[in-house]
C-alpha cells in the first residue's frame, strides 16, 4: 500500500504511512519550520525515511496507547533520534515515553508552531489518548479507539466506556474533522455495518469506494467525524432500528454498543 499525503493547511501535511501488516503510522509535516511529528511509529525507520525525503527534522512522536504495534518502536526511535520528545498518556505506561500528558491539554510540537490537544478515550486501553491538531482543517489521530466504520475491541474497558469515548468525546468534534486511525480495517468494518444496517445507503456507497481504494493500493484514511456518524454503527447506537436489529428493544445506547461489539467479534465476512 502506498504512502498518501493529506493537507491540513497551507503549511501542514499528514503523510499516511502503512506499516506492519495493516497498521497506519503518520508523519505530520510542518513545512514552514521543516519539522515533523510522528504518530505511533512502530516501524520507526520507515517514517524516518519519509522524513529524510521531505528534508524534515523529526522532533516529536505521539503515542496513542501502549500496545506493541503502536508503542513498540519508541525505544528504537529514541536511539535513532536521541533528542526526540516521545509523548504518551498520563493514564498508562508505554515504552519509551518521555512526556506524559493528561486529557484536555494542549502541547506545542517541538520546533514547530503546530499545537495538538489531547482527548482521553478509554476502552480499548483505559489510558488511550487521541490527538487533535489546531490546523485550518482539524484532524484527530484516534489510534485503536475509532476506526473507519468501526472501533477497537474492548480489551480493558466496557461498552459504557466506548459509548462515552465515541459518542460524547469524539462526536463533539466538528463534523469535518479528519479521522486518522490505527489500522486498515475499513472493508471488513463496512461489511459488518451492512449486515446490521442493510438499508443504509451511506454504508453501501462507502463500501464500494473502500473496495476500490484497497484494490488500488491506496489507504482508506482519512474519514471524517461527520461521515462516521452516517455509516459507523458504533457511532449510531442511538438509532432505534439498529438497536432492534441487534436485539435491544429499548432506547439504551450502551446495550446497543455492547451487542454490536459482541456481534462484530463473531463476524466473519
Describe this structure in words.
This protein has 269 residues and is an alpha/beta fold. It has one domain: Ribonuclease Z/Hydroxyacylglutathione hydrolase-like (Metallo-beta-lactamase, Chain A, 4-Layer Sandwich). The protein contains nine helices and 15 strands. Strands 1-2-3-4-5-6-7 form a seven-stranded mixed beta sheet, with helices on one face. Helix 4 packs across helix 9 and helix 5 packs antiparallel against helix 6. The protein starts with a strand and ends with a helix.
Brief account:
The chain has one domain (4-266): Ribonuclease Z/Hydroxyacylglutathione hydrolase-like (Metallo-beta-lactamase, Chain A, 4-Layer Sandwich).
The percent range for strand residues is 25-35%
Helix share bin: 25-40%
Report the principal-axis shape: globular
Residue runs with pLDDT of under 50 for 5 or more positions: none
Look at the helices and sheets and give the structural class. Answer: alpha/beta
- CATH level-two architecture: 4-Layer Sandwich
Major beta sheet, strand line-up: 1-2-3-4-5-6-7
Q: What is the CATH topology?
A: Metallo-beta-lactamase, Chain A
Total domain units: 1
What is the CA-atom radius of gyration, in angstroms?
A: 18 Å
Number of helical runs? 9
The CATH superfamily is known as Ribonuclease Z/Hydroxyacylglutathione hydrolase-like
CATH class: Alpha Beta
Mean pLDDT: 98
- Please count the beta strands (DSSP E, at least 2 residues each): 15
N to C succession of SSEs: EEEEHEHHEEEEEEEEHEHHEHHH
Q: Give the oligomeric state of the chains in this entry, treating copies of one chain as homo and distinct chains as hetero.
A: single chain
- Could you tell me how far the N terminus lies from the C terminus, measured between alpha carbons in angstroms? 22 Å
Largest sheet: 7 strands, mixed
Amino acid at each position: 500500500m502506498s504512502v498518501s499525503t493529506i493537507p491540513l493547511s497551507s503549511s501542514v501535511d499528514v503523510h499516511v504511512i502503512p506499516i506492519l501488516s495493516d497498521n497506519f503510522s503518520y508523519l505530520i509535516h510542518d513545512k514552514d519550520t521543516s519539522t515533523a511529528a510522528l504518530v505511533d511509529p512502530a516501524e520507526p525507520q520507515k517514517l524516518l525515511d519519509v522524513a529524510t525525503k521531505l528534508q524534515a527534522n523529526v522532533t516529536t512522536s505521539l503515542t496513542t496507547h501502549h500496545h506493541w504495534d503502536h508503542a513498540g518502536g519508541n525505544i528504537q526511535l529514541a536511539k535513532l533520534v536521541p533528542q526526540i520528545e516521545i509523548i504518551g498518556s498520563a493514564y498508562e505506561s508505554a515504552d519509551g515515553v518521555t512526556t506524559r500528558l493528561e486529557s484536555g491539554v494542549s502541547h506545542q510540537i517541538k520546533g514547530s508552531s503546530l499545537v495538538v490537544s489531547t482527548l482521553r478515550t478509554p476502552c480499548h486501553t483505559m489510558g488511550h489518548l487521541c490527538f487533535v491538531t489546531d490546523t485550518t482543517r482539524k484532524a484527530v489521530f484516534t489510534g485503536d479507539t475509532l476506526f473507519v466504520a468501526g472501533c477497537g475491541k474492548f480489551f480493558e474497558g466496557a461498552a459504557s466506556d466506548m459509548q462515552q469515548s465515541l459518542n460524547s468525546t469524539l462526536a463533539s468534534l466538528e463534523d469535518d474533522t479528519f479521522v486518522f486511525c490505527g489500522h486498515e480495517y475499513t472493508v471488513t468494518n463496512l461489511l459488518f455495518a451492512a449486515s446490521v444496517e442493510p438499508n443504509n445507503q451511506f454504508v453501501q456507497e462507502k463500501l464500494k469506494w473502500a473496495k476500490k481504494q484497497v484494490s488500488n493500493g491506496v489507504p482508506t484514511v482519512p474519514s471524517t467525524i461527520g461521515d462516521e456518524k452516517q455509516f459507523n454503527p458504533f457511532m449510531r447506537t442511538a438509532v432505534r432500528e439498529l438497536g432492534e436489529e441487534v436485539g435491544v428493544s429499548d432506547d439504551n445506547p450502551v446495550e446497543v454498543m455492547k451487542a454490536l461489539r459482541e456481534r462484530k467479534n463473531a463476524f466473519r465476512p
